[in-house]
Amino acid sequence: MSIIEEIAAKVDDWKGRDISIEQLSGGLTNTNYKILVDGKPYFARVPGASTELLAIDRANEYHNTVAAAQAGVAPQVLNYFPEHNVMVIEFLDGKTMSKDSLNEPGQPSRMAQSIKRLHAGPRFYSDFNMFRLTEYYLRLCRDRSIKTPDGYADRMPTVNEIEKAMSAKPLATVPCNNDLLAENYIDDGEQLWLIDYEYSGNNDPTFELGNTCQEMQFNDDQIREVCAAYFGEATPAMIARMKLNMIMSDVGWGLWAAIQANISTIEFDFWGWALERWGRAVEKMDGAEFGKWMGEVVK
Predict the structure, then answer these.
(1) Are 146 and 89 in contact, with CB atoms under 8 Å apart?
(2) Three-class SS of residue 239?
(3) In the prediction, which pLDDT does 49 show?
């Protein structure tokens, strides 16, 4: 019996009912399932192999998913099986978004509104810091001889300078998803729901905003739209924080992709993704505006 079949058999409310299990496409870390119980859909996800190496804390994920549901932006957790690190979650009836759909007019503001609602919700279980996660991933790559794109270690002094600048006038941390890829937005026609809390934690809100702008490859006008919808205005200081966090998004998640290229059994070009992300980060660190952003965040 597979793990997902074990889970389905353990849910008391489902005993004696007609159950069918369908594997869903997508997911870069885990295997996702739609479970039909007498025709009613539920969602469950089974963690992928060696995902503990990616610094995913499943107890943290469970706590924060419950908190995000209380904030009204995530589906309800119906059952939790810690022995398998599996949650059974309410199935959202909506459209899984894509980079293209979130680049349509008005969507940046909708994204900011959902993010703001999450950030106003209950505090999360633990904190998230991309600078510390980057250090952990880099150590892991060294210890396990995992290949990284050329020049990663050489750029760490610049990363340290970014952290120093961002720490000059720190923002209060808020509960963040920290991994808002396009596919982690679900549109039910009324609101954008935010799913997948594997990397969630209390964090600088401009990391959340910058990270999701980076995932969508938003242009400057769209970045300003997100900033204004979240903060009420797009100030140079907040735009600069978002821009620097866009760099950190690519720095950290680029290492994540390099590790996945080494450990994942999922069919995906993780190494190509690592190269793409690192190339963007280097381009921005070497860009003409980098110094201006560094100056704005310390004013």
Answers:
(1) no
(2) helix
(3) 67
Which residue type sits at 110? R
Please state, as a whole number, how many other Cβ atoms lie within 10 Å of the Cβ of residue 53.
Answer: 16
Tokens standing for 245?
A: 């966090």
Helices (H), 144-269: 156-166, 205-216, 220-231, 236-263
- Mean of pLDDT values over 135-147: 96
Please identify which residue in the block is written with the tokens 């978002």.
242
Crossing angle (nearest 10°) for helices 236-263 and 270-285: 150
The answer to whether 164 touches 235, Cβ cutoff 8 Å, is no
The whole-chain average pLDDT of the chain stands at 95
Higher pLDDT, 76 or 55: 76
pLDDT above 70 as % of the chain: 98
CB-based contacts of 146, cutoff 8 Å, min separation 6: 140, 258, 259, 261, 262
Q: In what order do the strands lie in the sheet with 95-96?
A: 95-96, 185-187, 192-194
d(CA 7, CA 9): 5
Q: Whole-angstrom Cα distance, residue 132 to residue 138?
A: 10
Which domains are seen in the chain, by residue range?
Answer: 3-93 (3.30.200.20), 96-296 (3.90.1200.10)
Which uninterrupted H or E stretch holds 60? helix 58-70
- Record the tokens describing residue 69, joined without a space: 């549901």
pTM higher than the cut 0.85: yes
DSSP state letters, 105-136: TTHHHHHHHHHHHHHTSPPPSSB--HHHHHHH
Written as six digits, the tokens of 62 are 């469970």
Q: Is residue 171 predicted with pLDDT exceeding 70?
A: yes
